[in-house]
Design brief:
Length: about 230
Amino acid sequence: MTQQQTTADQPMVVVEDLRRSFGSGAQAVHALRGVSFEAHRGRLTALKGRSGSGKTTLLNLVGGLDAPSGGRILLDGTDLAGLDEEGRLAMRRDRIGFVFQSFGLLPVLTAAENIGVPMRLRRLPTAEREERVRTLLALVGLADHANQRPGELSGGQQQRVAIARALANEPALIIADEPTGQLDSETGHAVMELLRAVVRSEGVTALVATHDPNLMELSDQIVELKDGRLVDQP
């Protein structure tokens, strides 16, 4: 096997015996209790579980927004525990795209300007940034809505802008926390289909937390959590 093949076969995300507790002693809350799984390139992994099962905690840890109490996380072969705060910031900026339930768009900016924000932070040249924005707007089906602000867009359209923004810096990993939570079932299904299509076309890995059983069919892999533990899949 060549080095190129080895890299391609390597999981994008490796979670090993991950634990996260809040507080100490008898009052400690154990949000994660020894979770282990892998997520591969070009695949959409759904994190399934009821509220309080540990999904958001897991996403925050994989995204470098929080530090585990034990275990380890590898992103594209990099151990997050070995990164300082500057290194984690660079990882989040350059390698990870985030999609939130509340969309997280800046209301005073147009759709195009919202998508361009991450590229401005990386000081991408204007011409290159604008070309990337046009490409992403077309990818999510909003080429005709570039100059509209979030308040002029439907919830589904806002989430499509959020997905395009998450892709702005060509991340290796997309993390989405209940991205359809504020959408009706039909719109939510369309957004999940878009996410799956983006995973295929862009070759990224996606971790998507959801409690909607109707969306599981669109995932390549299901990781189910219950009370901070992994539930074995049939």
